[in-house]
Specification:
β5, α6 and β6 form a beta-alpha-beta unit. This protein is α/β, with parallel strands linked by helices. It starts with a strand and ends with a helix. The protein contains 11 helices and 13 strands.
């Protein structure tokens, strides 16, 4: 029995792989080590996963032949598909990367899964971005999500639709997870918390979009990992009627004002930020807020880390990793 984690060098992927290794699982990781952000950070994450039960292959999920060759001899029973091209703003200028990774790559993974003997479940990453400009808060899974405002969001909604097709046609047990602003140690350098921390420590201004009138459902990585593993271990049952496919929000269920987040970050660093108030960026939304009733009911998901705990933990890690005093 082995767990396949795609995007294993990524922020969430590496943390999920570590949790599985800690409980004694055999873990196979794949990643294409793209240069969307510095590759050395991805390699450093992989270095933390050094373990007899972990094997890694550098492979692009958009390359069907390479994917098949890399995974052919592996006894995979569970797939946690987290590999994707991330970022809302980057999708405006580099749409091809999203088509290859999030559409072609996702179909390749679904094709692999349906031909995988002994597969128990497959979970995959969607995004809170699918809610687009919805103004009803909190966001719930039965809200309409057919009006995305970024290409990234459109690809993630397409992933859910394709997942439903494969669950219907091939009875593939699938669970999609709409992630809400994940943060914590080993996080992504294109995310606000990293960018703000780095700028504050260097005495540079931070860019505060929409003049600070924004809120996000910041969710700590440990809470996210617990949810990912829980849904992977308990796939949707197949009653022979509805497709065995579930989609869940996975967030903190507690949106925080951006300016409040910056206050907490300043306290953790011990330095006041130089705040540059700027307009809203294209493709962005003013608020996110996860209704987690469904995943709490079905999988016992219960996030426990407020930003007053999670942000200082990130700052401590960031200083250690980057060498800031």
């Amino acid at each position: 029995m082995a767990y396949l984690v795609t995007g294993a060098a990524g922020f969430i992927g590496a943390a999920v792989a570590q949790r599985l290794l800690d409980r004694g699982e055999q873990v196979i990781g794949i990643d294409n080590l793209s240069d969307y952000y510095p590759v050395h950070l991805k390699r450093d994450r992989l270095a933390t996963l050094a373990h007899p039960n972990f094997t890694f292959a550098e492979v692009d999920i958009a390359d069907a032949a390479a994917l098949k060759a890399a995974l052919a001899p592996q006894p995979i029973t569970h797939i946690i598909h987290l590999a994707a091209q991330a970022g809302v703003r980057y999708s405006i200028t580099n749409p091809e990367a999203y088509v290859q990774s999030n559409l072609v790559g996702h179909v390749n993974m679904l094709e692999y899964a349906r031909r995988c003997d002994g597969l128990v479940s497959m979970s995959y990453a969607s995004s809170s971005s699918v809610y687009g400009g919805n103004t009803k808060l909190p966001f719930a899974e039965d809200d309409r999500v057919d009006a995305p405002i970024s290409l990234y969001a459109a690809t993630k909604k397409a992933d859910e639709l394709m997942g439903n097709v494969y669950a219907h046609l091939f009875r593939l047990p699938l669970t999609g997870l709409r992630f809400f602003t994940v943060y914590g140690p080993w996080g992504r350098p294109d995310m606000a918390l990293w960018l703000f921390t780095d700028a504050i420590l260097q005495g540079k201004p931070i860019r505060v979009f929409n003049h600070g009138d924004m809120s996000r459902d910041f969710t700590f990585i440990d809470d996210i990992v617990a949810g990912v593993v829980a849904v992977t271990d308990s796939p949707p049952a197949d009653d022979g009627k509805a497709p065995p496919h579930c989609v869940y929000n996975i967030g903190n269920n507690k949106p925080e004002q951006l300016l409040r987040m910056i206050d907490v970050l300043e306290d953790a660093i011990g330095i006041k930020a130089i705040r540059s108030l700027e307009p809203m960026q294209p493709g962005d939304v003013p608020a996110t807020y996860a209704d987690i009733t469904a995943i709490a009911r079905d999988h016992g998901f219960a996030p426990t880390t407020p930003i007053e705990v999670g942000i200082p933990r990130f700052v401590e890690w960031f200083k250690s990793y980057t060498g800031f005093e």
